[in-house]
Amino acid sequence: MAKILIVGAGFYRHIYELQLQGAKAALEAGGHKYDVLEVPGALEIPAAISMAADTAAYDGFVALGCVIRGETFHFEVVATESARGLMALTLDGLPIGNGILTVENEAQALTRADPAQKNKAGEAVGAALALLTLKRQFEQG
Ligand SMILES: Nc1c(NC[C@H](O)[C@H](O)[C@H](O)CO)[nH]c(=O)[nH]c1=O
Ligand SMILES: CC(=O)[C@@H](O)COP(=O)(O)O
C-alpha cells in the first residue's frame, strides 16, 4: 500500500478532470491512498511536489496537467521546464509519475486524458508505483 499525492494543474480544467478520473481509478484499483493538490499551471507542479516531499507524508507523487502549443515560445518553457523539474526531483529519489501532457491541440489532449482511451494519467500512476517499489527494494538491501 502507498500514500500518493496527486499534484495537478487546473489550467485546462476539463482535461484535468479527466486525468484525475484516470489517476484516481488506478490508485483505487490498487488499494492505495491518495490526496489531491491543485496548482495553477504545470510550471508550479515541481515546486509543489518538492514542498510536499519535505513533509515526508507521501510515498510517491503523480503529476497531472496539460500543455497545449500556442503561438509563442511559452509552450517550450512550460513543457520543458515542468518535465525538467520533475526529473530533477526524481533523480533525487522521489518516486514521481509524470502525467503532464504536452500536445499540439485539444483533440490530442482529450484522447490522452480520457481514462477509456490512452489514459496517460493511469500510466503515470503505474510509473510512480513502480519507482516506489524499486525504492523500497533498494532500501531493504
Ligand atoms: N500555457 C500553459 C500553462 N501556463 C501557465 C504556467 O504553467 C504557469 O502557471 C504560469 O506561467 C505562472 O507561473 N500552464 C499549463 O499547465 N498548461 C499550459 O498550456
Ligand atoms: C502552452 C502555453 O503556454 C500557451 O497557453 C501559450 O500560448 P501562446 O504561445 O499563444 O501565448
UniProtKB/TrEMBL annotation:
Xref: CDD domains: Lumazine_synthase-I
Binding, 5-amino-6-(D-ribitylamino)uracil: F11, A42, L43, E44, C66, V67, I68, N98
Enzyme Commission number(s): 2.5.1.78
Pfam family, one: DMRL_synthase
Pathway of action: Cofactor biosynthesis; riboflavin biosynthesis; riboflavin from 2-hydroxy-3-oxobutyl phosphate and 5-amino-6-(D-ribitylamino)uracil: step 1/2
Catalytic residues identified in the record: H74
Reactions the enzyme catalyzes: (2S)-2-hydroxy-3-oxobutyl phosphate + 5-amino-6-(D-ribitylamino)uracil = 6,7-dimethyl-8-(1-D-ribityl)lumazine + phosphate + 2 H2O + H(+)
Chain's role: Catalyzes the formation of 6,7-dimethyl-8-ribityllumazine by condensation of 5-amino-6-(D-ribitylamino)uracil with 3,4-dihydroxy-2-butanone 4-phosphate. This is the penultimate step in the biosynthesis of riboflavin.
Name of this protein: 6,7-dimethyl-8-ribityllumazine synthase
High-level lineage: Bacteria, Pseudomonadati, Pseudomonadota, Alphaproteobacteria, Sphingomonadales
